[in-house]
Amino acid sequence: VCAGTLNGLSVTGDAQHQYRTLQRMYNNCEIVMGNLEIVLIDHTQDLSFLQTIREVTGYILIAMNVFSWLPLQNLRVIRGTQFYEEKYALFVLLNYNPNTTHALRQLGLNQLTEILAGGVYIEKNAQLCHVETVEWRDIMRDPRLEPVV
């Protein structure tokens, strides 16, 4: 079990500092108590340490990154005890660099079966594949929410 963050899009230091902080917080972590916020991570960084995460109790924010693949293949549940922008449990935004070919191409959420509370927002990810083929309504527990993809 490890603690999550509540920084939103605010970052401290440069991209290298962001990466080291992320690695220190989530290395060998299976349950994130709080939010998993992955912001401003470079394409050269190895994020394989994230593959041990199975559950996030809050929300997941993936924004302004330029890595190609997010290794959250063992994540099964987002509980949504906290929301990003007051309603989203999964928020994925602006994961590409318009000046290069570096961009998020795969979310890697192969095992994600439940979002217990909150919605899904995925927008402005120029090279992200397969997100519109996912049946987000089957994963989201709240039938009143519409996924924004």
Number of strands: 9
- Number of helices, counting only DSSP H or I runs of 4 residues or more: 2
CATH class: Alpha Beta
Low-confidence stretches: none
Give the CATH architecture: Alpha-Beta Horseshoe
Keywords: Kinase, Transferase
InterPro entries: Rcpt_L-dom, Rcpt_L-dom_sf
Pfam family, one: Recep_L_domain
GO molecular function, one term: kinase activity
Q: Could you characterize the architecture of this molecule?
A:
This protein has one domain: Receptor L-domain (24 nucleotide stem-loop, u2 snrnp hairpin iv. U2 a', Chain A). The strands form 2 sheets. The chain has a 5-stranded parallel β-sheet with strand order 1-2-4-6-8, with no helix packed on it. It starts with a strand and ends in a 10-residue tail after the last helix. Helices cover 11% and strands 20% of the residues. The protein has 2 helices and 9 strands. The chain is an alpha/beta fold. It has helices at residues 15-26, 136-139, and strands at 2-3, 31-33, 36-39, 55-56, 60-63, 77-78, 88-93, 114-115, 119-123. The longest helix is centred in the first third of the chain and has 12 residues, at 15-26. The chain is globular and about 40 Å long. The model has no long low-confidence stretch (mean pLDDT 93).
